[in-house]
Amino acid sequence: MDNIFSNVLSVCVFLPLIVGFVLLFLPNRINLLSRALALIISAITFILACRIFKAGAPDFAWRLLDIGGAKLDLLLTAQPLSKFILLFAMGFGLLITLYSLKSAAGTKQPNVYYGAVLLTIGGTAGILLSNHLLFLLIFWEIVTLSLYLLISTGGRNCNFAATKSFAMIGASDAAFLLGIMMVWVLSNHTFVISEISVATTSALPIIAFLLLMTAAITKAGAMPLHTWLPTSGEYAPASVMALLPAALDKLLGIYLLVIIVRKIFVLQSGALSTILAIIGAATIIIAVMVAMVQHNLKKLLSYHAISQVGYMVLGIATLTPVGIAGAVFHMLNNAIYKCCLFLCGGAVGHAAGTAELDRLGGLGKKMSITFVTCLIAALSISGIPPFNGFVSKWMVYQGIIRMGTEQTGGAAALWPIWLLAAMFGSALTLASFVKLIHSVFLSRTPSELKHVREVSPAMTIPMVVLALLCITFGVFYHLPLKTFIYPALEIEPGTAIFGVWQSRLATVLIIVGIVLAWTILHISKKVRTVPTWTCGEVQKNDEMIIPGTHFYKTVSSMAGLRQLYTAQEKGWFDLYNQSGKVGRALTDFLRWLHSGVLPTYLTWVTLGLLVILFMVCKIW
Amino acid sequence: MTEPLNILLQILVFPGFVFTVALGLVASWVVRKVSALVQWRVGPPLFQPFYDILKLLGKETLVPQQAQRTVFMAAPLVGLAGVLLLSTMLWRIAFQPAELFVGDIIVAIYLMVLPSLALILGSSASASPHAAVGTSREMKLVMSYELPLVMAFIVVIIKTGGQISLAAIAEQAPVLSVSGMLAFLVSLLCVQAKLGFVPFDMAEAETELGSGLYMEYSGPLLAIWKLMQAIMLVALPLFLVTVFMGGFGSAGMPLAWGIGKYVLVLVLVILIKNTHPRVRIDQAMKFFWVYCGIALAAAVVLAMIGNSCGWTWL
User: Fold this and answer.
1) Do B59 and A524 touch (CB under 8 A)?
2) CB contact under 8 A, A530 and B215
3) Partner residue facing B132 (CB), from A397, A506, A546
4) Among A24-28, A246-250, B146-150, where is mean pLDDT lowest?
5) Across the interface, do B140 and A431 touch by the CB < 8 Å criterion?
6) Any chain A CB within 8 A of the CB of B293?
């Protein structure tokens, strides 16, 4: 026990866990303490993560159990991949804690909220540093549990969303446990990740792979087990969405996926990469199609949080260096801009009091910082050069093309489909963010939003930091690739990317072009403000607002798509709803059996006895 | 001359801004003149597009009251800068194919979205209901033609054996095969839509939306949009020439050959413009997603069969 606080890795894991656990049980009156503690501890873990990333750290081993042959060791190691993800995860933790101080989130149960945030931070550090599958699972559960707690601090209906998330992720965690047990059997009874390497040649390892994959993609939010994400997106506080589903869950899910694809299993079966590619491509397209028709800002963002996972899964499925590097880079980029978008969504909700797109509009004039950061993040997620989303998508595309030209097998032969889904999905993403930007920030201001003001600096600073990261990682993309991605994946720099994208030159040239056009513009200096042109008609034009929610009616009313959209609205494709229905039918049947009428019971008993008699005596 | 200065000259003078704008304005004159001749009119004189720009530049800038001013004013600038970068990039492939410059074909496809995006954001920022309808139509148009355009890109990639560098693609001419021809024809329609020409001008729709997207733009800002369109009139056909038709007179080929290819594409665009009425946005969506989609799915399959059997003509 004495060495827990002497090793930097274990401090990074256990300090937030212990403090977070204590905070959960503090009475709500002393909430200032929990805010201060949360900020301090998240800052400390971020500094520790920086130190771990820069200087590395000695491994940490702690024997918990040694009974006869059964040994259980808590092993924490700073691998290159986990080091860099840890750095960013702790960074997100700090930014969100800062943001939460001023936002509405956590005003109801501040201690539970900040306690759960710290538990999340500690659990995340534990998952990333743990070199032992069982402990990885325990930390994984801590994060799941704290997600439940965090969602349940939200407003109306948040308990439903929290339960749904917990049920779905919990179910996938059961698959995780089963998968771990299979891996244990297959790998000569070891749980230590660095010692496991299972070939996927027979049925058992393939099932184990699929089980672990299920856990990873449910956490990350890929289809078909994604439906917890939009539900919680609608009811949970925006900062919670920014912290977990947008940032940390992506980092963790994709981290696990990379680990199982590259470390635990040796992928030899083409069918497995085909399954991954199908999940990736379907997730991209379907989620973005659903996102396009959403009317709620946070729900729209949640569907994009699902859609973007598709790029990561697809990149990993290519099994090419550039594809996997692109996927991991996209994981990082997505966490950055998606976190920023949710924070912007939260800021808009905080300032305007609603997240319904129909009731928003024209906020760009009033909340300029939120608008600019949101625009940058929206352009990044849509893959507009020179922002960061473009670079990682561009790498994933290259991975798909390389897979198509160099590999053989099912997934490689179908590469046009994957590429089409990825590139077309990007256009649809742009479409849905145009709708968002139009409805929230441009267009006209409804009269009830005339006095909306920009949110406080504690909320804008995290957004600005993330938006700046979007630009930096886009324009100087070699920097994060060389410092974080390539070392983490053991890729020789300069060997992966085969396309051309001189981002710095392009940015300079775009700026030159803008300056040129600006000079031309200033030939005439006169600028006059005029009322909107109404084509000469007399009408109450000021009150006429065209909200973006009607933009894509043409799509949702197209023959074929219309039926799918209706079915989706009714929840036909929601595994949670469907399994709920099955469970309901089962309990109804059981309830019908337990009617409390003695003769019926006696009949059943007699019938059962007869069946047993028949079976035992083999009368037929 | 030092390299940075050289590149600056290239983007500002030749083959960048001055040259491309001049060429684009001449091309827009050709479009107007031919359209006039088709409609039994005389048409404008050669320098009319230049006069239009000069006149607009001398006027005052009008900004609507409720507009998001910064976005409204910045959008044309960004659009112009983006398309200028694209055209310079494509010209460089024609004149200095050996040197890497800015990006590959994926970058080119993404840069082609910038003008539409700038237009969408600018018109959305103007806070005019007419412009909002135009915004929604333009965005729907972008997502309609993006599907066949990506599929055409896939055909090109298959045909060129996984090359994504523009210079390497420019050395081959996918148009000389069945699948490549299909991809070229559909891409031509996409270019038509990107240019906002009839039959895909529903986002401007003078008769019903009062030029929709451009409704609130006037004076110098409108002039910048016009300059952007002029550059697009050069850059987009040049893209088709580079990607499908074996490049613009690269090594060993005379310049006249390249100009001939460009004029051919321009003539095709003008022909389509003058022989079709405007379609509704839902018709355009259906056309691009269903008909063009099916045609190009067939093209992709043909190209893959051709590749695996070694039939380059397929």
Assistant:
1) yes
2) no
3) A546
4) A24-28
5) yes
6) no
Q: pLDDT (tens digit, 9 = 90+) per residue, A213-265?
A: 999 989 888 888 888 888 888 888 888 888 888 888 889 999 999 988 888 88
Residues in A 465-504 with any Cβ partner in B closer than 8 A: 498-502
Q: Could you tell me the pLDDT band of residue A619, with boundaries at 50, 70 and 90?
A: low
* Least Cα separation, residue A585 to chain B (angstroms): 41
Sequence-ordered list of residues with C-beta below 8 angstroms from that of B277, at least 6 positions apart, any chain: B198, B199
Express as a percent the part of chain B with pLDDT over 70: 98
Q: Is A558 on the interface with B (CB under 8 A)?
A: yes
Report if residue A520 sits inside a domain.
no
- Considering the domain architecture, whether residues A347 and A223 belong to the same structural domain is answered as no
**Which token pair is A356?**
């319904």
A416 Cβ under 8 Å from any chain B Cβ: yes
B71, B154, B216 member nearest A532 (Cβ): B216
Q: Which residues of A touch B20 (CB under 8 A)?
A: none
Left, alpha or beta for A235 (phi > 0: left; psi -120 to 50: alpha)?
alpha
Nearest alpha-carbon partner for A288 in A567, A552, A546: A552
Provide the pLDDT confidence category of residue A196 given band limits of 50, 70 and 90: confident
Domain ranges across chain B = 3-309
Please list every residue in chain B whose beta carbon sits closer than 8 Å to the beta carbon of residue A402.
162
Measure the CA dihedral A264/A269/A271/A277, to 10°: 50
pLDDT number for residue A105: 59
Within-domain flag for A406: yes
Q: Which pLDDT belongs to residue B142?
A: 93
Count of domains in chain A?
3
Q: Tokens 């779905």, residue?
A: A168
Q: List all residues 6 or more positions away from A493 whose beta carbon is below 8 Å from its beta carbon.
A: A481, A482, A486
- pLDDT of A540 reads 66
* Residues A317-337 pLDDT 10s: 988 889 999 999 999 999 999
Residues A242 and A284 both lie in one domain: no
> Is the preceding omega at residue A27 within 30 degrees of 0, hence cis?
no
- On whether both A135 and A275 belong to a single domain, the answer is no
Q: Cβ separation of B64 and A531 shorter than 8 Å? A: yes
Task: Tell me if residue A597 falls in helix, strand or coil.
Answer: coil
* Spatial CA neighbour of B120 closest among B101, B135, B133: B135
Q: What is the pLDDT of residues B258-282, one digit of tens each?
A: 888 999 999 999 999 999 899 999 9
Give backbone dihedrals phi and psi of A201, rounded to 5 degrees, phi first.
-110, -25
CA distance, residue A556 to nearest chain B CA (Å): 11
Q: Token pair 């891996």 is at which residue?
A: A183
Print the domain residue range for A612: 588-617
Residues of chain B contacting residue A368, judged by C-beta atoms under 8 Å apart: 70
Asked if residue A53 lies in contact with residue A86, where contact means CB atoms within 8 angstroms, the answer is yes
**Which among B204, B70, B25, B102 has a CA at the least distance from the CA of A386?**
B102
ipTM of the complex: 0.94
The token duo for A304 is 């994009």
A356, β-bridge pairs:
A296
Top-confidence residue, A595 or B173: B173
Last residue of a domain, one of A445, A464, A495: A495
Residue A390 pLDDT grade (very low, low, confident, very high; cuts 50, 70, 90): very high
Nearest CA in chain A to B89: A506
* B168–A contact, CB cutoff 8 A: no
Tell me the mean pLDDT in the region B119-146: 91
Number of residue pairs across A and B with CB atoms under 8 Å? 248
Which of A367, A546, A558 is most worth mutating to test chain B (most B CB atoms within 10 A of its CB)? Answer: A546
Helix (H) or strand (E) holding A198: strand A198-199
Q: Indicate yes or no: CB of B57 within 8 angstroms of CB of A523.
A: yes
C-alpha A307/C-alpha A221 separation (Å) is 9
pTM: 0.92
